Structures are given as C-alpha cells and as structure tokens.
Give the backbone structure.
Amino acid sequence: MKIGLLSFAHMHASSYAACLKRIPGVEIVGIADDNAARGQAAAAQFATRYYADPQELLAQGLDGVIVCSENSTHLMWVQLAVGRVPYLLCEKPIAATLADGRAIIAMCAQRGTKLQIAFPVRFSPPVRRAKEMLDQGRLGRIYGVKTTNHGYMPGGWFIQKELSGGGAVIDHTVHVIDVLRWFWNTEVTEVYAEVGFDLIHPGLGIDDVGLLSFKLANGAFGTLDTSWSRPKSYATWGDVTLEIVGEKGTLLIDAFAQHIDVYSDAVGKGQWAGWGSDIDLGLIRDFTDAIATGREPSITGEDGLRALEVALAAYRSAETGQPVKLPLQGAA
C-alpha cells in the first residue's frame, strides 16, 4: 500500500508517519511540503523522499494521502489530491471555515476520493468501551454530559488566526463534539459560549480558554471546558475527559488514563509511560484498513463539518453574548 503525506505543518504528522511505519505492507512513498526545510527533515526522519512539487508525489500511483497542513490550507492540499487518489485522510478540523469544509466534501464526492477526518479520540479504549455501554443502554436516558479538553499552547501557526481559524476553542472543541455525536448519533442544536483571550498567555492575541454550554437533539445538556492551560512541562499534550449522567447511573471516562506516572530526576519532569493502545495508531490502522478493503471511511467529512460548526457557533455566541442555534446560517 502506497501512502503519501501532504504537509508536515501539523504536529500530528510525525505521529501518523510513525504509525504508518508500524503497519506491515504500508510504504510511505514520500512527503510533500511547501516548507522545504521541514519537509526534508521529515523525509530524512522517516527514510522516504521529499517532494518539493506535490504533483510529482501524487503521480506515484498512491493508494491514499494524509493532509496535515495548517487548518486554512486544507482545501488547497485537498484540491491537489482529489481525483488522483482513492482515499484521503484530512487532519482535524476539516477546515477553518464551513465554506471550505463544504467545498472539501463536495469535491471529494464529485471526483471519487473517499474522505476521512482525523479524530483519533474515537480509538481510545476507554472511549470505545463507553460507546459499547451506551449502545447497550446501560445508562438509560441521558440527562447531561460534562467534558474537558485541555492542552498546552502549541504556538507557531496555531496562534495565527488566518492559518488556524481560531485558538483553543477550535483546536479542542472538535475532538469532544465528534465523540458525543458518535456516542448517540445526535446533533448539537444550540451553543452558548464564553471565550477568553490572553487569559493564560498574555499577549497571545488569540483565544486560549473557552467554556461551552450546549444542547443535544437527544435532549441532553452538555458543557465543555477547553483551554491551552497545560504548561510545557506537562507529561503529555493534554486531556479528554467526559462525565455522563443518565437515569441508571454516571459514567466517568478518561481517554488517556492508560499510563503510569514516571518521575525521573534525569529527565527533569514527570512523564507518562503509556501501557494502553495508541489512539493515533488506531486511526491510521482504520484508514489503511478502509483502503485495503475498499470500504467507506468510518469518520466522514460530514462528521468533520458538524464538529467544526459547533466550534464556530461558540465563537459567534461569544461575540454576541447570546445562544446560537444550529445549523449555522451563512458561510461562517
């Protein structure tokens, strides 16, 4: 199976490439990047070829590509690949705007490229076990859900709105909303949000904290505490937790609980030694399995669009001070 990577701008690109190397029969044919130094370094790290011209990489008869560019340039990279590869995995969020997201979905459908969005949290063992329990009706009617997604401030293009589309709120909201939609096959119908700028990182110039309250079509009420509040010394990039309250009980989920805390004076900070599954590897295995079997992707472009819509509704609510109904009106 021949896979190419388009852009190494996103930090997940290195993880996805490492996962591809772990899957028998999968070859990383090359890496195309508009930043030559970054692309060449990545190609050297993963023992593959750097392509300054993405068209040359796409001419290699690829079975699939992975787009890991800046959020606002997803559409540009997809436009290059669509119709030339049968499968495409796009980093989350699907785009920085709904207009771009819709264009990506329509383009892939028209040109016969099957689109998958990168939501690796679906492959966390605690999250998957929770999905099984909810499908079995173990909690009965769902009343509410309290969620978090905290991380560290990534810097770089993530804090340049023209490239990212926003800060912590767009960066983290999409992960949690995708999980909730997947749990219950339901949509968010209303969002109210408070969004803070420069509260944790003075002078950042973009949102670094947000608190969302939302309603789901299944009647449940939810909250999401999202931020770039973790220090650089934190053991990992952040957290995803969910507390679900139902008529038959409460379910507590920690997506990254499968680790041992390690404190080493030699390293100088606490570390998490993971003993559970690698959620990025789960995502990449799922993507390559879809290619191998010819099936539809398990996480669709529409999944990506609906998660993005909630993040954009949060920004709109924060600007107006009012709850925002979904689906959003206008291009957003």
Observations:
- The radius of gyration is 20 Å.
